[in-house]
Amino acid sequence: MTAHAKISQVAHYVPDQVIHNDDLARIMDTSDEWISSRTGIRKRHIARDQQTSDLATKVAASLLEKSQIPAEAIDFIIVATITPDSNMPSTATKVQAAVGAHQAFAYDLSAACSGFVFALSTAEKMIASGRYQKGIVIGAEILSKTVDWSDRTTAVLFGDGAGGVLLEASSEPHFLAESLHSDGGRGQSLVSGIQGLHSPFSDKQEDDSYLKMDGRAIFEFAIRDVTKSIGKLIEDCQLTADDIDIFLMHQANFRILEKMAQKLGVSIDKFPANMMEYGNTSAASIPILLSECVANGNIKLDGSQTTLMSGFGGGLTWGTLVIKL
Ligand code: ACO
Predict the structure, then answer these.
(1) Which of 265, 268, 320, 323 has the most crowded Cβ, counting Cβ within 10 A?
(2) Under CATH, domain 4-173 is a member of which superfamily?
(3) What CATH number labels 176-196+204-324?
(4) Which residue of 218, 221, 282 sits with most ligand 1 atoms within 8 Å of its CB, as the best mutation to test the pocket?
(5) Are 287 and 116 in contact (CB under 8 A)?
(6) Any atom of ligand 1 within 6 Å of the Cβ of 275
(7) What dihedral do alpha carbons 147, 136, 17, 273 form, nearest 10°?
């Protein structure tokens, strides 16, 4: 029998502290009007005393509780993040220890805002191989660690949060199609966490942990390249945009979603959005959105809806999955 993978449960968690655009306007030269009209963002959650693994652990614990599955039954945990607590140990191994998933192997995956889509694609292959039955895939970020709080061009855009899914073996196919892409040649348009050389045997280089972005270039990339690859994928699997019930897109900027919807000839009503509440949470944005859509009844997880999930960002990376949810 061929093995398939199915998303059987979803969860998300964000830190309590909410920072409104007006709060930012008190510490930098910006305004609610500028931020909300250019991006749609009105507020974001910012961690006060929690690390990325704390947010991811809340999500994993919630997935286990909601599904009533013992932690020992989990075969693997993947955390997509560009803001790990540390390079070593990984965020995922901290989650594994915290929830007691003693049988699981665990690792982090780094693909910026495409991280959750890339991780889910990888996890689906592991379940479809027949070797593993249950895996947890989480996107978790504390971007407030890497943002330069004196740079208004980036500081207003990002937030902290985590979301994830439980993936289980299924007899029915749910993952219908995918296309994953990278273009390292354009990598310098979005950078963070640059580590210099420090050894006495090297030419010294500077560290630069701050996130820096060529906003215009990323905006253009999203609208042109990402939309084109979404259109091609829909065509390749002999669907039309009308056949997709819901577009779960990376939540960077509402104007990007409007332009994508327009180019694809789809009503913006099919594009749920929550960057108003959370800002851009990179790898966490799609699973937070998915979890909210399940909570508010827009998505039922009963196999009746064709959804398209698409992430895009640093690397550059972009990737899209078509999934029966
Ligand atoms: N408040 C007030 N004014 C501002 C702010 C701010 N926060 N930021 C910039 N400005 C000013 C600029 O200085 C500029 O002023 P000037 O004309 O006097 O020089 C003016 O506003 C216009 O700036 P632009 O950068 O041209 O503004 P633009 O309309 O391009 O919007 C934005 C910028 C919102 C960043 C947009 O380019 C964008 O959304 N890009 C995509 C970002 C994105 O999607 N990132 C996702 C990937 S993130 C990841 O992978 C981790």
Answers:
(1) 320
(2) Thiolase/Chalcone synthase (3.40.47.10)
(3) 3.40.47.10
(4) 218
(5) yes
(6) no
(7) 80
Catalytic residue numbers?
Answer: 113, 250, 280
Which distant-in-sequence residues (6+ apart) come within 8 Å of 86 by Cβ? none
Ordered per-residue pLDDT tens for the chain, 325 residues: 579 999 999 999 999 999 999 999 999 999 999 999 999 999 999 999 999 999 999 999 999 999 999 999 999 999 999 999 999 999 999 999 999 999 999 999 999 999 999 999 999 999 999 999 999 999 999 999 999 999 999 999 999 999 999 999 999 999 999 999 999 999 999 999 999 999 999 999 999 999 999 999 999 999 999 999 999 999 999 999 999 999 999 999 999 999 999 999 999 999 999 999 999 999 999 999 999 999 999 999 999 999 999 999 999 999 999 999 9
d(CA 320, CA 176): 11
Identical fold, 4-173 and 176-196+204-324:
yes
Q: 65 has which bridge partners?
A: none
Q: How far apart are the first and last CA of the chain?
A: 21
Residue 163 and residue 140: Cα distance in Å, rounded? 7
The answer, yes or no, to whether any atom of ligand 1 lies below 6 A from the CB of 212, is: no
- Could you tell me which residues are beta bridge partners of residue 12? 163
Choose which residue among 21, 34, 153 to substitute to test ligand 1 binding: the one with the highest number of ligand atoms within 8 A of its C-beta.
Answer: 153
Give the residue, by CA position, lying nearest to ligand 1 atom 50.
Answer: 313
d(CA 233, CA 308): 10
- Domain range summary for the chain, segments of one domain joined by +: 4-173, 176-196+204-324
Q: How far is the CA of 215 from the centre of ligand 1 (A)?
A: 6
pTM passes above 0.90: yes
CA of 290 to the centre of ligand 1 (A): 27
CA distance 96 to 197: 32
CA distances 157 to 134, 179, 264, 268, 312, Å, are 35, 27, 25, 21, 15
